[in-house]
Design brief:
Layout lengths: L1 H29 L2 H9 L6 H11 L15 H4 L2 H10 L12 H36 L4 H15 L2 H15 L15 H31 L2 H8 L4 H12 L1 H9 L2 H6 L2 H7 L4 H10 L3 H29 L6
Helix pairs in contact: 1-16, 2-3, 6-9, 7-9, 8-9, 10-11, 12-16, 14-15, 15-16
């Protein structure tokens, strides 16, 4: 087990370097240090001296990948990419271009993101699996056909529609919950009810169809026919055999969600005014704050890799045939 985890961590290093390289390339293809300086300084009259001083203070005066003015290994090491990347691998996110401590901001904003993402994830997972098992139990019936039509309809509508419709109905018309905002503690529950409801409902269509296809693939396997031949009820077959053997693809799909649990939902947090990591990233992109952008992309990549490792390990718990 230890050797496997160590090997995966070693494999992750070139992946993170590649992700970081692409982040640098894409960001500086559409942004220049001069544009970033003007966005951050915000003054009406900005002189070239002010821009140069801002660039030197934050290291943006150095070449991006190759320093032709240096000698030896400094050609590569004395660059913006190398200096910023080395700090990221020690999880030293430094300060943003607006002089805020990125590490402190991440710790502060992780709570609101988790307050929305965790209940949405848990409720959606239980709801989607339960509905999928119900449809498999009544497969081929009018209920199954009707639910699949509804699922496709839900999938076909943009998530923005559910957000706007939810705010109009539950907040403006019925005044059940606040339209936006956030508060810590138990008093903040009223602010997360609507985002969680919308998040669960918007994902029902794709979730139910995905889990239903998994369970239908298992329902025709030989072990299911054997279980039925032993006299087990259909419910015991579904929950005791089909669900357990369908956990491997379910776990694989869950991995994709793990980074979003910590990183937050970009659109949901922005629309509901939740001070989480999703809105933090959107604000950084809008203000051209590269310090925050590279930190959030790197952190999301690390979380995704950790999720993959945990998923591979969990495979062995549900299927003894899987070896690390």
């Amino acid at each position: 087990m230890f050797a496997y985890i160590l090997r995966r961590i070693i494999y992750a290093v070139p992946i993170l370097i590649g992700v970081n390289l692409i982040t640098f390339m894409l960001f500086f293809m559409v942004n220049s240090p001069e544009d970033m300086a003007r966005a951050q300084l915000g003054a009406k009259q900005i002189s070239p001296q002010m821009i140069q001083a801002w660039k030197e203070q934050r290291g943006y005066d150095k070449p991006l990948f190759i320093n032709l003015n240096a000698q030896g290994v400094s050609v590569v090491t004395d660059t913006l990419f190398m200096k910023e990347s080395l700090k990221l691998f020690t999880f030293n996110f430094g300060v943003s271009d607006s002089n805020r401590n990125i590490g402190s901001d991440i710790k502060e904003r992780m709570g609101p993101s988790l307050a929305i993402a965790l209940p949405t994830f848990m409720i959606a997972l239980i709801t989607n699996i339960s509905l999928a098992l119900l449809l498999v139990l009544f497969r081929g019936s009018v209920l199954d056909t009707s639910m699949m039509i509804v699922a496709v309809m839900i999938m076909s509508i943009s998530g923005l529609f559910y957000i706007i419709a939810g705010q109009v109905l539950f907040s403006k018309m019925w005044h059940w919950v606040p339209i936006s905002g956030y508060d810590s503690g138990w008093s903040g529950i009223k602010f997360i009810i609507l985002p969680v409801m919308i998040g669960v409902f918007a994902g029902i269509g794709s979730g139910v169809r995905w889990y239903r296809s998994i369970f239908l693939e298992q329902i025709n396997q030989d072990y299911v026919r054997t279980a039925r031949a032993k006299g087990l009820s259909e419910l015991r077959v579904l929950f005791g055999h089909v669900l357990r053997n369908g956990m491997l693809p379910i776990l694989t799909g869950v991995v994709v969600v793990i980074p979003s649990l910590f990183m937050g939902s970009l659109i949901m947090e922005s629309f509901f005014g939740i001070p989480g990591l999703g809105s933090y990233t959107i604000d950084a992109i809008s203000s051209q704050d590269f310090g925050i952008v590279k930190a959030m992309v790197f952190l999301g990549s690390v979380l995704y890799i950790v999720g993959l490792i945990l998923t591979d390990i969990s495979y062995t718990l549900f299927d003894p045939r899987v070896k690390l």
